[in-house]
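Hi R.,

Here's the chain you asked about this morning:
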Amino acid sequence: MRIEIKHQLGLGVIHDDALNIRKTVFVGEQGVALTDEMNNPLAEKKALHIVAYVNGQPAATARVLEENPGIWHVQRVATLHAMRGQGLGSQLFDYIESLAPFYHIHMLDLGAQIQARKFYEQLKFHTYGSEFSEAGITHIGMKKELK
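And the predicted structure, written out as tokens:
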């Protein structure tokens, strides 16, 4: 299995691949309305989109936005069902953390679906705040200080 991770700022081929994964996972599997998934066209244009390719095929994705100076808000993290359990999510976050210094980022922040909390805890994220609902799914705020 050959894994390659690529990123792109804004719209283009990598964004299109990311969007297809997001539609499959969030809209198709989790029942999120497409209008909720695509609720911020400006974010799509401004975000850094990251996609993991397995043997040349899109398999996992995340997007990051610098909503506050030095802090990336990590969003839309998803792995296609057939590709889960192979470490792609961890590799995506390793890649994000390797990019962070080039963008002067010192912290990652995200809203984790409750069912993914343990995954993020294994990546050394810490919870904060109260649980909240987004697109009908319970989430918790999590953050990680980068070295």
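The two ends are 31 Å apart (CA to CA).

Let me know if you need anything else.
M.
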